[in-house]
Amino acid sequence: MSGEIVLVTGAASGIGRATAIAFAAAGAKAVVLADVDETGGNEAARQVARAGAQAEFVRTDVSKPAEVDRLVQRTVQLFGRLDVAVNNAGIEGRSARLVDQTEADWDSVLDVNAKGVFLCMRAELPQMVSQGSGAVVNMASIAGVVGFTWAAPYVASKHAIIGLTKTAALEVSKKGVRVNAVAPGIVKTAMIDRVTKGDARAEAGMVELEPVGRLGTPDEIANAVVWLASDRSRFVTGETLVVDGGYVAR
Ligand SMILES: NC(=O)c1ccc[n+]([C@@H]2O[C@H](COP(=O)([O-])OP(=O)(O)OC[C@H]3O[C@@H](n4cnc5c(N)ncnc54)[C@H](O)[C@@H]3O)[C@@H](O)[C@H]2O)c1
Question: pLDDT tens across 59-108, in order?
Fold first, then answer.
């Protein structure tokens, strides 16, 4: 990734933070970290700097078009270009059966997860197309590949990300820009701790769902993101790479 300018949303925590650090360790020149969490975002930026890249935290709510547009403008203003964009920010929403989900539940999850990815790509792709190069990696989920009970808005949002990824990839395929997605299995982050409410039995239940017999780590997802953003995957576009310990192989 030597010399590349990388943007990661949802970079304050979990998979996004690990991804920002992984790009720095892989030789990126600069990583712009976006999140609504300023404390976590600044802490992650310090870790990125320690890993060897310039780091800039820009507080951004990915569901707000003006904030997303400003984020990309700021990146280009500071570093002159945008080589890699990882659209990772996401929320899990409230755990309830489909018939018990409210319109507000639906809107909040779709606003961040699906509209957020749409707004980010709408801002990022013109810059990459104008450069004639770039790679976008969107954070989907195995919930974008198979259904999950008690998570209808989340599942819908992650299926939407896979469709957006394919469509965007086709629209820029002749412009030197690739668009892919990663679909993680169950990865031990703050998101999963919120779902299990820290209950060891609930976490053990999740481990049982994973054929490899453990949860994934944020680093294992970050490695896949870095590969999809690198020249090593230059013939891969429109793809969703499932990184799930075998979850969807069942
Ligand atoms: N952990 C898993 O098991 C798992 C599995 C599949 C996919 N994912 C996806 O990976 C991504 C990262 O999740 P994670 O597990 O690291 O969770 P996390 O909660 O640790 O991190 C998510 C980050 O996104 C940020 N965020 C939330 N809303 C935002 C907004 N409107 N604008 C900007 N930032 C916002 C949060 O502040 C947080 O820092 C999400 O898209 C999630 O759906 C996670």
Answer: 999 999 999 999 999 999 999 999 999 999 999 999 999 999 999 999 99
| Ligand 1 pocket, mutate which of 7, 8, 15, 220 (most atoms under 8 A from CB) | 15
From 195, 244, 193, 194, select the one nearest 220 (Cα to Cα).
244
Q: Whole-angstrom Cα distance, residue 67 to residue 128?
A: 19
How far apart (Å, rounded) are the C-alpha atoms in residues 33 and 6? Answer: 9
Residue 130 covered by a domain: yes
Look at ligand 1, atom 24, and give the residue with the nearest C-alpha: 10
Q: Decide if 145 is inside a domain.
A: yes
Question: CA-CA distance, 213 to 11, in Å (whole number)?
Answer: 27
Catalytic residues: 154
Residue 1 has pLDDT above 90, yes or no: no
Residue 13: which domain range? Answer: 5-185+218-249
- pLDDT tens-digit readout, 142-189: 999 999 999 999 999 999 999 999 999 999 999 999 999 999 999 999
How many domains would you assign to the chain?
Answer: 1
Q: Buried b / exposed e across 119-137, counting CB within 10 Å, b at 16+?
A: bbbebbbebbbebeebbbb
For residue 2, the model assigns a pLDDT of 84
Which ligand 1 atom is at minimum distance from the Cα of 40?
A: 39
Query: 36 CB less than 6 Å from ligand 1?
Result: yes
The closest-lying atom of ligand 1 relative to the alpha carbon of residue 215 is 3
